[in-house]
C-alpha cells in the first residue's frame, strides 16, 4: 500500500490500510511513497500494489504518455473517471469506485489580503497580479510545472508569476504552503491549496474560486494493479462503500484534524472508520 506525500494521501492510505487489515489482509505500509510521478511509477513497476490517485492527475499522466485526452474531459467528473478507468485498464491498472469529493488545485490567500483587494475568484487574482499586485506564491514544483495547475490558472486568468514570485517547497504538502502564506514566511502571501484542505479556514486563509473551470476535476479513487485485484477481488468489496462516503466536507474535516490539530493520520482514519 502506497500513497502520495500530502496530508490527504496519508489519510486515504491509512483508511485503506486499516480497512484491509480489518478484512483479514496483511498490508505492507509504504504510505507517503512520494510525489505523483514517483508513486505512479512504483505502482507500474510492482513496488506497490495499490494507492489512492485522482482523476485529474491520471489524465495528466496519461497525456504525458501520449493519450491526448481533450481538456474538456478533465473538467467533467464522470467523463474524467470513465476515461481514466478505460485507458488505465490497458496499462494493467484498475480503478475502484471514486469518492464524491473534488480535491482540485486551488490558490489560497490571507483573508485580510482578500478583503483589502476584493479577491474572491481567480479572475480577481489574475487582474490584481497583472495590475502590479505584490504576490509571492508558495507551491510545489509539480504545481508550478504542470500544464493543468498554475499554468492553467495563468493562461485562463491572464497573469504570469515570475521566478522571484515563487517559493518552491519540497513535495506536495499544502499544510506547509498554507502555513507560509498565513505567517508571511519569506514574504509569502499566497499558497497552493487543495479543494478539501482542512487548514484553510483555521489558518485565516481564503481559497479563491475557479469560475472558468481552469483546472481539472480531482476525485480520489484507489488504483490497483490488475494482477493484485484479480487475486484479491475482495479489495473492491471492502473499499468501494467507504470511498462512497468521502465527500468534500468529510475529507476537509479529517484533513483538518491532521494538518491543524496535529493528530496522527492513522488515528484520524481509525476514528472515522469506527463511526462507519
Topology diagram in text:
Layout: E1 2-4, H1 7-22, E2 30-34, H2 36-44, E3 50-54, H3 55-64, H4 71-74, H5 77-89, E4 93-95, E5 105-110, H6 111-117, H7 122-130, E6 137-140, H8 141-145, H9 150-157, E7 166-169, H10 174-183, E8 190-194, H11 199-202, E9 205-207, E10 220-225, H12 226-231, H13 234-243, H14 248-259, H15 265-275
Parallel strand pairs: 1-2, 6-7, 6-8
Antiparallel strand pairs: 3-10, 4-10, 5-8, 5-9
Helix pairs in contact: 1-15, 3-5, 7-9, 14-15
End-to-end CA span: 22 Å
Shape: globular
**Percent of residues in beta strands?**
15-25%
Q: What percent of residues adopt helix (DSSP H or I)?
A: 40-55%
CATH architecture of the largest domain: 3-Layer(aba) Sandwich
Commentary on this structure:
This protein has two domains: 160 residues, D-Maltodextrin-Binding Protein, domain 2, CATH 3.40.190; 103 residues, D-Maltodextrin-Binding Protein, domain 2, CATH 3.40.190.120. The strands form three sheets. The protein has a five-stranded mixed sheet. Strands 3-10-4 form a three-stranded antiparallel sheet. Strands 1-2 form a two-stranded parallel ribbon. Helix content is 49%, strand content 16%. The longest helix is centred in the first third of the chain and has 16 residues. It is α/β, with parallel strands linked by helices and 276 residues long. Helix 14 runs antiparallel to helix 15. The chain is built from 15 helices and ten strands. The mean pLDDT is 95. The chain starts with a strand and ends with a helix. Helix 1 links the parallel strand 1 and strand 2.
